[in-house]
Amino acid sequence: MMKKILVLVFVVLMLPAGALAQELTADELTADELTADEQSVEKKSAEKKSADELTADEQSVEKKFAEKKSAEKKSAEEQSAEEQSAEELSLDELSVREQSAEEQSVEEQYEEDLSEQEQPLEEMFTEGLLFEEQSVDELFAEEQPAQEPFFQREIRFGHLSLVPNLSVQEVHNDNIYYGNGSNSISEKMVSDWIRHVKPALLLDWELNGRGSLKLGYEGDFASYAKNSVNDWRTNRYFLDLDLFTPGGLLVKINNTLTDAQDPYGSLNEFGLGHKTMRWIDDCPIAAGFKFSEHFKMFTFYNFLKQRYADRMDFMQNYTSSEAGAGGEVKVEDKTWVFLRAYSGRQGYDTYRAGITRSNDASYGWKKVTTGLNWDSTARFRGEVSVGYQWNSYDNKADMNGVPYKDKSSWIAATVVEFKQTDSRTFNLLFTRNMLQLGGGGSGYFTNTTLGLGLKQRIKQRLVFLAGCSYSINKYNSEYSYYKGRNDKILQVQASLNYLLSDWIAVGIGYGRLKNSSNHASEDYRQNQLTISLEMNPSFLERRPLEQLSSQE
Q1: In DSSP terms, which residues pair with 70 in a beta bridge?
Q2: Share in percent of the chain as helix, strand, coil (round to 5)
Q3: How far is it, in rounded angstroms, from Cα 358 to Cα 341?
Q4: 433: confidence class by pLDDT, cuts 50, 70, 90
């Protein structure tokens, strides 16, 4: 029993302690839970705070990124605006430049066109100063490099160019027969209007940077308003080969065949003022080698044959040939000095009316020349040439027993063009030579000519041309018609030309010729007024210079 009481007491005693322990444990648990909750809350609060801070950082980053993106966008917009402005400015500048280039092209093209309308200096001042019934526009020819294009006034097939041309001229000549007015028959001064129609065609083949080959045709059909019996035509055909190889070989062949009826006379003035039918084949050939940039050598062969249709003119039929050699040394950037020696012969080969091989005027010659020439890109163009020539006759006397006298004299062949500016060009001509009067008798004359020319471009489409020359012909013959005769010939010409378009040019010109001679029958004057219309004046630019020089 006691045990039960003791157990009961023990239980009773233990019960509050257990409850207390249980309560304490519960309180401790609650405190622990509270601590955990607090910690959880604090953790959540910290997490929230961290999240808030992270959000703030993200917002700050996003804000900075947005600001950066906005700044970049603004910068891109500003750059785009600047580029657009620059592009607009560039387009404006380009438009201005294109307009300036077009204006410059028009100016250059007009100068070329007017140069193409002109004929060579040699034709303006021939040995006898023959005043041809031609446009004053054709006084000064200017050879341009064949490879230069000119405003598509040509038809191209690869390396082949086809260049057409047509010129129409109205010329008033107040003395078509070169009379002095002393009588109404042989010296009557007759005036007339003469229409010239001049078709032309040129084929120009570029040889792949090694030169060019030119084939061409030029016609001149003259119709007289009142004296139609004087109507005439002249056809000229030419071939020009200019070849140079990388190895240094140089070849130049220029052949001109002329079938003429014009009244301009021959080189020795035969037939001047009268319609005469004749043909002339002129073919100079040069072949050489360029050993270095400063030295080259050439060999030459020049051939000329002349035939008249009328049997009465047989004393003007001859064949001339000449061979020579020479060297050239470059003394400056574009200037060469040359020395040449030639040997030649002119043979008269039509015999009748007492003229035979044993008494004709055939003769041979030797000559030496020296001078200067220039590259095609220099401001000077052409050649300065002076020398000395010795002539010796095959026979001792003509058919009348008049002795042939060997002769010698200094000679000159200077034709120079100086381009002072793009709008102004000067020309100089100085020639001297000895010319045989014919194949049937003893007699010759020396011709000395000095000429000056000017080409001045005014504004864009207007060109003024002017030229003058003075020539002295001194005759040496025992025959009365020529004995003691001296002619002094003054020629003045001027023209004004206007380019209507790339293809059409118009011009007006005036020329005067005055021959003062101590033989009354050869004392005359002549005035010409020329109105011209040129379609595709670029044609003359493409013709060979030698071919131009060979024209009468």
Answers
A1: none
A2: 25, 45, 30
A3: 29
A4: very high
295-352 confidence digits (pLDDT tens)? 999 999 999 999 999 988 999 999 999 999 999 999 988 899 999 999 999 999 889 8
Evaluate whether 463 touches 112 at the Cβ level (below 8 Å).
no
The domain in which residue 527 lies consists of 117-549
Cβ distance 478 to 472 under 8 Å? Answer: no
Rounded to an integer, what distance in angstroms lies between the CA atom of residue 539 and that of residue 116?
6
The Cα-based distances of 373 to 289, 370, 413 in angstroms read 17, 10, 12
| CB-count burial class (<10 Å; 0-12, 13-18, 19+) for 216 | buried
279 within domain boundaries: yes
Q: What is the pLDDT of residues 23-40, one digit of tens each?
A: 433 444 344 443 444 455
Look up residue 186 and give its two tokens.
């042989």
b vs e for 508-535, b when ≥16 Cβ sit within 10 Å of the residue's Cβ?
A: bbebbbbbebeeeebbbbbebebebebb
CATH number at residue 534: 2.40.160
What would the two tokens of residue 132 be? 């041809």
Q: Which segments within 174-231 are labelled E, that is strand?
A: 192-206, 211-224
Domains contained in the chain, number: 1
CA–CA distance, 104 with 111 (Å, rounded to integer): 11
End-to-end CA distance of the chain, in Å? 177
